[in-house]
């Protein structure tokens, strides 16, 4: 059902930028010799506690590696695991260990956004230029 919906969106939506959240292995299993479902990237929880990374942190990390091998963009969500991980530690894991392309965070106020973006700036500017 999901794959049919993805196909309909791609046929309807001219820019054809499709993002999916299922794990890479689930996508491969669903394709299993059938028409390949085309998508441009993955949006998935990524954090060093493994919170909300289903079925396991290791499984998601493997899925990210496989998706990257196929040139898919990776967007991390839930990097702070509901506030259980310090900002810089969380972003360091997301960008250095998981090597995602982008990260989305939730903020409750302008002040919180400023704190989060300062932490992100510190981590991102400490990465080697080839990682940016």
Write the layout of secondary structure elements.
Elements: H1 2-12, E1 19-20, H2 24-31, E2 41-45, H3 57-69, E3 73-77, H4 87-97, E4 102-103, H5 110-126
Parallel strand pairs: 1-2, 2-3, 3-4
Helix pairs in contact: 4-5
Describe the protein's architecture and organization.
The chain contains five helices and four strands. It has 132 residues and is α/β, with parallel strands linked by helices. The protein has one domain (36-131). The protein has a four-stranded parallel β-sheet, covered by helices on one side. The chain starts with a helix and ends in a 6-residue tail after the last helix. The model has no long low-confidence stretch (mean pLDDT 78).
Helical stretch tally: 5
Fraction in helix? 40-55%
User: Roughly how many Å apart are the termini?
Assistant: 37 Å
Strand content: 5-15%
- Model regions low in confidence, pLDDT < 50 over at least 5 residues: none
Shape: globular
Structural class label? alpha/beta
Largest sheet: 4 strands, parallel
Whole-number tally of structural domains = 1
Sketch the topology as an H/E string, one letter per element. HEHEHEHEH
In which order are the strands of the major sheet placed? 1-2-3-4
**What's the total number of strands?**
4
> Overall pLDDT, averaged?
78
Round the Cα radius of gyration to an integer and report it: 16 Å
In brief:
With 132 residues, this protein is α/β, with parallel strands linked by helices.
Features:
132 residues; alpha/beta; 5 helices; 4 strands; globular
């Amino acid at each position: 059902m999901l794959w049919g919906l993805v196909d309909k969106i791609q046929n309807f939506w001219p820019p054809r930028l499709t993002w999916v959240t299922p794990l890479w292995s689930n996508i491969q299993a669903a394709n299993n010799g059938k028409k390949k479902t085309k998508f441009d990237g993955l949006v998935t929880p990524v954090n060093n506690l493994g919170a909300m990374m289903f079925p396991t942190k290791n499984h998601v990390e493997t899925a990210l590696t496989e998706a990257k091998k196929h040139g898919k963009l990776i967007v991390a969500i839930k990097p702070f695991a509901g506030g259980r991980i310090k900002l810089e530690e969380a972003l360091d894991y997301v960008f250095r260990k998981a090597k995602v392309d982008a990260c989305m965070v939730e903020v409750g106020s302008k002040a919180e956004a400023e704190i989060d973006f300062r932490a992100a700036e510190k981590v991102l500017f400490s990465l080697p230029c080839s990682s940016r």
